[in-house]
Amino acid sequence: MEAAEAEASMAWVWRFEKADGSVAPVGSDPGDFGTQGDAESWIGEIWKDLLAEGVDQVTLLEDGSKVYGPMSLHEAADDS
Predict the structure, then answer these.
(1) What order of strands is seen across the sheet that includes strand 65-72?
(2) What 3-state DSSP class applies to 71?
(3) What stretches of the chain adopt beta strand conformation (E)?
(4) 28-73 pLDDT tens trace
(5) Are 59 and 14 in contact (CB under 8 A)?
(6) 8 Å CB contact between 33 and 67
(7) Which residues of 42-66 are buried (b: 16+ CB within 10 A; e: fewer)?
(8) Which of 3, 33, 19, 32 is nearest to 70 (CA)?
């Protein structure tokens, strides 16, 4: 498989989680994204809806391997 084909076949997915790391069900799973940028753009647009559905945090996976996370969907507390 050539490098361009390998990159094109990568699947980026979000795992939706409760605060304890268990899987959180969502009403509409977006499925796979073709690029990390597409996945991150989507989460940036939809995170408040996911939070309202009971999702506390998300983890980004590339072909089943964790890229980063868990990343909280809750707004950071102001410590000032």
Answers:
(1) 12-17, 57-62, 65-72
(2) strand
(3) 12-17, 57-62, 65-72
(4) 888 899 999 999 999 999 999 999 999 999 999 999 999 999 999 9
(5) yes
(6) no
(7) ebeebbeebeeeebbbbbbbbeeee
(8) 19
Classify the phi-psi angles of 58: left when phi > 0, otherwise alpha if psi is within -120 to 50, otherwise beta. Answer: beta
Task: Find, among 7, 10, 15, 2, the residue nearest to 66 by Cα.
Answer: 15
Looking at residue 38, its pLDDT comes to 97
Q: Which of 20, 79, 74, 80 is nearest to 52 (CA)?
A: 74
pLDDT band at 4 (very low <50, low <70, confident <90, very high): very low
Element (H, E) at 46: helix 36-52
